[in-house]
Design a protein that fits this description.
Elements (H helix, E strand, L loop, with lengths): L1 E5 L5 H10 L3 E6 L2 H10 L3 E4 L5 H11 L6 E4 L8 H18 L4 E7 L9 E3 L10 H15 L3 E5 L1 E3 L5 H7 L5 E2 L7 E2 L1 E3 H13 L4 E5 L5 E2 H12 L6 E2 L12 E3 L2 H5 L9 H7 L3 H12 L10 E4 L6 H12 L2 E4 H9 L3 H8 L1 H13 L7 E4 L8 H10 L1 E6 L2 H8 L14 H19 L2 E4 L5 H20 L1
Helix pairs in contact: 1-7, 3-4, 4-5, 6-8, 11-16, 12-19, 13-15, 14-15, 17-18
The structure holds adenosine-5'-diphosphate, shikimate-3-phosphate and magnesium ion.
Shikimate-3-phosphate (S3P) binds next to helix 12.
GO molecular function, one term: shikimate kinase activity
InterPro entries: Epimerase_deHydtase, NAD(P)-bd_dom_sf, P-loop_NTPase, Shikimate/glucono_kinase, Shikimate_kinase/TSH1, Shikimate_kinase_CS
Subunit structure: Monomer.
């Protein structure tokens, strides 16, 4: 198929990637020549700059591409936070121009579940009343109608989240969350992961499923249910309640959006719920933590754990065990979690799945520690090499870097062959030197404290870790 994607934002870009990967010919439209150039450099699919709010611009595009050769047009452009005027030009005019200029193409319009104005927590499906009382909502409905008249599909997307975007979690971490209305339970959150939203658009277009479809995951929950779970996961206090804000852009509503119709067409979800995504999406939790940590608006909160980092043989596993025993913490070793979860040894994982897969196992093991307190966390030496791990490590606790010279590390690691990066190395010391050069800046950037362990016994190192952690957490309390 030849498919135009108008608007290559959070969802549009993903839909374009999916279509391209499935062998379709994709033309991504962006409104500015600059972003067209940026996308062209980064993406394997074709990009064009086109202002869909201008009928001349869309006609020129149709001429250039050959209007009849286009099989589908997906409208994913956003109003860039604009008000009713932008809704009119981008959504209504944009959709009209696209359906007129590409009359043979199957049109898809990405609308929003905000068209349902219900406020009593009722379940709504595609047949439910959907006449919002605000101008912006009415304009969405108008764009929907243009699409339906052209025998196309309307995808009503719930609240979109994904790596780098999750209002619920970001607000909570920034201390801005509140539970609104519904007798202290808060409104119902209807959400969808951007990957699943994009997959839904591709599904509708490639199957040419005309009509209205809600695009929302399987696990709607109240704000209270969601925030309580997030608070457990991220070690936060449950936010207070407040009355709904009537000036909220999408209006106040409180309803459970059904996805039964879309499921019945064979659409399947990668992330059935928001919490599945926090567990399984390698980047979701870490990207939001990192946004907040780097935003500098709120003080970094650390969980009451001790995290040990450093090269192989620096003593993370050994010292971690001793520290845990001394202070009555639980010892958790990410390498041991990986082995338990995968059901095979680390050398086996490296041999059968490769290092990249090992790193994914390692990130998953680290994410599984969200919500844990009172632990000494011994990590694997390479955990710092994955940028996505850094924000999580920083969040999880007080970080100590155990350091030693490569010569000594080589001696300490010589006794066993459980480390695939050193096994079979003719000169393990040289390899450790190389690794230290690569990783030193990462250890340094992350650590609260560096302990030079060369002249220390594991007990002495453990004592240093314990005392410094005690001081660190005592200061935090003040
Ligand atoms: N001063 C020391 N500190 C830490 N480990 C030491 C020390 N001296 C000898 N070792 C030995 O070195 C090895 C360190 O391995 P391990 O704890 O598995 O490190 P890591 O988990 O950082 O790879 C252990 O066998 C430990 O007994
Ligand atoms: O440095 C690394 O990349 C690795 C370190 C190992 O853990 P230790 O540091 O506990 O040996 C283990 O995770 C894996 O073999 C890879
Ligand atoms: Mg170890």
């Amino acid at each position: 198929m030849k498919v135009i994607i108008a608007g290559c934002g959070f969802v549009g870009e993903r839909a374009a990637d999916l279509l391209h990967a499935a062998g379709h010919e994709v033309i991504g439209l962006t409104h500015s020549p600059e972003s067209a150039a940026r996308l062209a450099a980064a993406k394997p699919w074709r990009t064009e700059s086109c202002d869909i709010s201008s009928s001349a611009s869309v006609s020129a595009l149709a001429e250039k591409l050959g209007a009849v050769s286009v099989d589908a047009v997906i409208h994913c452009a956003s109003s860039s936070r604009g008000g009713a005027e932008m809704y009119q030009t981008v959504y209504v005019d944009g959709m009209r121009h696209l359906t007129t200029a590409f009359p043979r193409a199957f049109p898809l319009y990405t609308s929003s579940t905000s068209v349902y104005p219900q406020v009593n927590g009722e379940t709504v499906d595609e047949t439910s009343f959907a006449d919002p009382d605000r101008d912006t909502g009415r304009l969405l409905r108008e764009a929907e109608k243009i699409t339906l008249v052209a025998k196309g599909a309307v995808a009503r997307l719930a609240g979109i989240y994904g790596p780098g975007r999750s209002f619920v979690l970001k607000n909570l971490l920034e201390g801005k969350a509140a539970i609104e209305g519904n007798n202290g339970q808060g409104r119902i959150l209807n959400q969808i992961h951007a990957d699943d939203a994009a997959a839904a658009l591709v599904h509708l277009v490639t199957k040419r499923l005309a009509g209205i479809y809600n695009v929302v995951d399987d696990a709607q929950m109240t704000q209270r249910q969601c925030l309580e779970r997030l608070c457990t996961l991220f070690g936060m206090k449950i936010p207070g309640t407040r009355e709904p804000d009537p000036t909220r852009k999408r209006g106040w509503s409180h309803k459970r959006v059904s996805n039964t119709k879309l499921h019945a067409t064979g659409w399947t979800l990668r992330y059935a719920s928001y919490f599945d995504a926090l567990r399984d999406d390698p980047d979701l939790a870490s990207s939001i933590l990192s946004l907040v940590q780097n935003g500098g608006e709120v003080a970094l909160h650390r969980q009451p754990n001790i995290v040990l980092i450093g090269l192989m043989g620096s003593g993370k596993t050994t010292v971690g065990r001793i520290v845990a025993q001394m202070i009555g913490f639980q010892i958790v070793d990410t390498d041991h979690l990986i082995v338990d979860n995968a059901g095979k040894s680390i050398p086996d994982i490296f041999a059968t799945e490769g290092e990249a897969a090992f790193r994914l196992h390692e990130s998953a093991a680290l994410r599984s520690l969200l919500g844990r307190r009172g632990c000494v966390i011994a990590t694997g030496g390479g955990i710092v090499t994955q940028p996505r791990n850094l924000a999580i490590l920083r969040h999880l606790g007080y970080i100590v870097w155990l350091d030693a010279d490569p010569e000594r590390l080589a001696r300490r690691t010589a006794a066993n062959n459980n480390r695939p990066l050193l096994n079979g190395e003719e000169d393990p010391k040289a390899k450790l030197e190389r690794l230290l050069n690569e990783r030193k800046p990462l250890y340094k950037g992350l650590a609260d404290l560096r302990i030079q362990t060369a002249e220390l016994t594991p007990q002495e190192t453990a004592y240093g870790v314990m005392e410094s952690a005690r001081v660190f957490f005592a200061k935090l309390k003040k």
